[in-house]
Amino acid sequence: xxxxxxxxxxxxxxxxxxxxxxxxxxxxxxxxxxxxxxxxxxxxxxxxxxxxxxxxxxxxxxxxxxxxxxxxxxxxxxxxxxxxxxxxxxxxxxxxxxxxxxxxxxxxxx
Length: 110
Prior knowledge:
With 110 residues, the protein is α+β, with helices and mostly antiparallel strands. 57% of the residues lie in helices and 13% in strands. It has a two-stranded antiparallel sheet with strand order 1-3. It is globular.
């Protein structure tokens, strides 16, 4: 359990460091799948504090054959985080509207 928490903390710190870089306009070769996984990890942790009554299932179905892309990582990361946050908000809101037993909130990234 300690190992899992340390890996989670390492991912959060790495993501925070990536977002704090001042040279955000620089393009670099980035693993898109890795970027999505980092964003999903951040959203999972923020969901636990923001939506205490809703714990959506989050699944990944990514294409491992996608090569690294020359992108502005910070900008794409912000887009992905916003999309995931919006998806979590939507499924949690839907769960509030329906009977919780009748609806399983799920966010699937593919």
